[in-house]
Amino acid sequence: MAKEATKSDLSKYLDPKTLTKIGNLDVKARLIVEGYISGLHKSPYHGFSVEFAEHREYTPGDDLKHLDWKVLGKTDRLYIKQYEEETNLRSYILVDTSESMKYASPGNVSKLEYACYIAASLTYMLIRQQDSVGMVFFDNTIKKFIPASSSPAHLRLCLHELAQLAPEQRTDVGTIFHDLAERIKRKGLVVILSDLFDDPEKILFGLQHFRHKRHEVILFQLLDDFEVRFPFEDMTLFEGYEGWEQLLCDPRALRKGYLEEYESFTEKMQRGCRNNKIDYVPVNTKNPLDVVLSAYLSNRLNSKFK
Amino acid sequence: MFAWLTGFFANPALLAGSAAGSIPIIIHLLNKQRYKRTWWAAMHWLWASMKKSHRRLRIEQLILLLIRVLILVLLALALARPALQEGMGLLGGRASIHRVIVLDNSYSMGLQVGGQTLFEKAKKLATQLVEDLNPGDEVDLLLVNSLVEDPRTASATKHSELARDIAAARLSDGTTHLPRGIAHACKLIKDRQSKNLRKEIVLLSDQTRNGWETGTQPKKLESVEEQYLNEVLDDPKLTPKIWVVRLSPGNARENLAASALEIDEKVVTQGVETQIVARIENLGTAPANRVPLQLYVDGEQASREELALVEPHKPATVTFRHTFLQPGSHDLRVELPHDSLAADDDAFLAVDVADQVKVLCVDGEQRSEPNASELDFLRQALSPARALEINAGKMPLQPEVISDGAFPDANLDDFRLVVLGNVALIPKEKIAVLEQYVRRGGSLWFWLGYRVDPALYNQDLGALLPCRLGEAVGSGSSDDRNADKLDEKAIDHPAISKFQNIKGLPLNQLQVFRRFKLLPKEKEDEQKSVRTVLSYENGDPAAVEWKLGEGRVLLFGTTADTAWTNWPTKNHYMPLVNFVALHLIQPEHLQRNRMVGEPFLYRLKREEFGIVRREGLKLQDPDGEPVAMDIDTEAQRAFSRPTRRAGIYSAEVPGEESLRAIHFAANRVVEEESDLDTIEDAEIQAYLPSRPDEQPERGRLFDAPLLKHQIEFLGEEFADVKEALKKHKAGKEVWRWLIVSVLLLLLAESLLAMRFGNYQK
Q1: Residue from A249, A260, A263, A269 to probe the interface with B (highest B Cβ count within 10 Å)
Q2: Are B721 and B742 found together in one domain?
Q3: Is the pLDDT of residue B465 over 90?
């Protein structure tokens, strides 16, 4: 289906609202990745190994340097040479499944759902290029640790686990990061998907641990649009997740203070991450997913050409 | 409680609106109840924001809430129109006023001081008092003298009209009664029920003593006038503050006044010299010498006399002699040289000059022989022929004798007096005519005799007679030594009082041989108006008289001829008959000479009645202004309202052939009003109590509890008057300030709400 689809058709699947209409996470992941890829001139997604594996029909966006000119001369058809990639990248995707991730403003997808889309599409993309992917679900404890692997079966496992997620506990990002830094032995890429509702000092301390273990870290902070803008007008009773006490207030009166808190947090995180060479990407879950994927890929390219 | 509130608020009911002050609180509480509910993840930021701004928010909310509550409470207060009370007065502003200007227009206000009269000064002050008012104020003008004139009122928007009324106000010829002015101003305040909170009475008057006192006693009010005062003093909302502005008379103290012009004779006849008496009063303190007086008859100077000396407070009289050549109505005026109070320098008289006055004599025993008829002697005593014989001059009365048989057909309107002598029977219908005749001003004179049945008289004529008739007593014989004699000392009655001046005619020479006993009337209240004219030596009444309506009825208990008395044979008889006849005759012009404040009466003649009833009777006052006269159809007379101006009034009565001019005269009551003696403020205040239960040192001016501090006395300078009125703080309204506060608070609320960020997007 996707192959026949035009470029613009595919890119619509980058919009999280459209994705909610599709039931299967597997399909979603594929659509996201292919939608995204189809928008690029140069497909960045190929193996790094030199050992030839098979031919594949050219699709728009593939790099022309991998075109098999011989086959073109013989058959007048466009084939791409594919190589058996040697798995040299281990990625771990860390998904925050705490209760606060459940939040979704009206008409929007929840942060957790958004996180799942990202996790699924990254997994899909990585496994397709023979990289091994591991997955960790956490709240205040590590709920699930799926070791890294690159087999297609692993992809299915990961997607299945993502589909099963049900958030319930508080976040304790800082502590979890320490644990995980210890558990992930080989150095690799650590992708963190979380709303980071914790003390920034603790978070940064945990992230430093990853860096200390020589992991590359991409930190996606997922926030709902309402959490960024705080657009409430009427008297509202706010009921907190994760055991927070409820609060009845006039939101107009508190907006200024709230936004200050938010900005101060973001600034602290940005400064901390820059100092630790961590990619910190704040993500508004209202926005299409390509922002996230681009951030990921640019990180990969940077690390490659370093 | 409510009454107490009404002292502070014009619309106390609207105070309930201040409950609206709870609306913001209720909205606030309701808002707390009505909220949306949402799950929220970023609670840590929200709580952090909350903790930082919690205290500030609470204070801001409280400030806004207070402002909103204050706005509504102040608005309700403003609508209730609160007023400051005396002693609360640091706040500025100005109460709405209902001001009653009481302008004394008694004639003493005509005193010339420094080139203008006090009344002109008072009018100028009154105009300034009207101009001084704000557009929302109400003002009434009341002109008072001994009478209270109709108030001129000006609605809040038409002060200029009242100013014109003030300019047009004229002096009256009435006297002063300032307590009455105050009472009627109170009535006006009560009637008007003005919403304006400050009630003021400003009385503009001179300083004369007579405005407040009669003799040495304070002037009293009638009970209904006291009631007016009580009504406003009972209601704190209506209680006025009273200022009395007293215009100074300067040094003026001396004043001569002409108090009356009179003619002694009741019946004035044409061609006979008539004595006209002018009465002059010196109401000053120094004697007046060589006072020239002029008499004007029908507007032309008739004669001139000089009074050598007029002692203070001793009335002096001057007698003018004048012969009227024409019959009909004449007007007379006596004039003094003008002094500083010119208004009281003349007196007036309207007089009817008749050719002759006809008297109807009804003879119950007419005989052809001389002196045998019952009324022969009487007719001769009244007749001119007999009068000329005894050199009494021309007699004004012309008797016309008819028999009792002819009486029922007689037209009584042609006669001023009807004498009934020994008449046995009067038809019932004629009795009714007689009664009406008397009630309209005619007079009846009864003589009795053997033909009179006392029982029949008592029964038929009971309503007319001044007494009941008892049995006849006495032998009837002229030789009777025990015959009753008249009491020569009992001659006080005005009909016979002139005998006091006639020596040599003692009344006890008059004997009565037979008479009816005169018994008092049965009803006591009727008996009260009965007077004994003549008495016998034993104390029994010989003649009694009473007033019935406008006329009189007089009854002699014996005969008019020599049958039962010796009177016709005595020299007493002629003067007695004439004195009594002239006493009984009511000259019509007497009712047309009145004092100022009394109404004029005019008895319409039979031939005039119909046409006057159709066309009305137009009276002109001394200034030529028309004065309405009402017609009393039952009594067949015209009457005016109480007169206000002194002088000669005239009317033209439509007759059968031509118009007939008649005159009326009104004279001033000068004894008090012309006396320029002044009274001090303190003396007036001594008539007022400080507390309601206190007895003032000089007696009470008002029975109502009007207290000393409620009346303030002021001089005549407008600046001082204005200042004094300004000081009166009670009733000062503050609603404008409240509205300004509300507007400022509304502005503050908007600015603060914006500042506090509640409306930021």
Answers
A1: A249
A2: no
A3: yes
